[in-house]
Design a protein that fits this description.
Layout: H1 7-13, H2 18-32, E1 38-42, E2 45-49, E3 53-59, E4 64-67, H3 71-76, E5 85-87, E6 90-93, H4 101-130
Helix pairs in contact: 2-4
Length: 131
């Protein structure tokens, strides 16, 4: 693959059926992220950002992957992910079978909640430090 400069270039280089699979996952993510989230390439993969990284996705030779950009999200939702091969920050799925939109939504929501908790802790620590 030629190094893509945009998400559209990236997807155009992905062979079928993986391209259609990723486009369905992409649409599910778009519906789950807050308004104003942006999509761009990160580490050569399509990723969504909203006050920092939220999730990413990519195609590989034998599978597609969803990256919640947090190992703990995968652990939190292990029960829902039992039919998928997972690693610390990765969920693998078949090139011809996208993850269900409801699962993508749950993963995005869990990641956004995690980011909100971290931000709240950061703000509390700043206030405490000012005292």
């Amino acid at each position: 693959m030629i190094k893509a400069k945009t998400v559209e270039e990236y997807l155009a280089q992905v062979p079928e059926p993986a391209r259609s699979t990723l486009e369905r996952v992409r649409e599910s993510i778009r519906k789950a992220v807050p308004a104003g989230a942006i999509e761009k390439l990160s580490y050569g993969m399509p990723a969504f950002y909203h006050n920092g990284p939220v999730v990413a996705y990519a195609a590989f030779t034998e599978h597609c992957s969803f990256f919640p950009m947090s190992g703990s999200v995968v652990g939190e939702l292990q029960k829902e992910l039992k039919e998928y091969e997972t690693a610390k920050g990765t969920i693998r799925f078949a090139v011809d079978k996208p993850m269900p939109a409801s699962l993508v939504k749950k993963l995005v929501k869990a990641r956004l909640e995690q980011k909100a908790r971290k931000e709240k802790k950061r703000e509390a620590a700043k206030k405490k430090k000012k005292r």
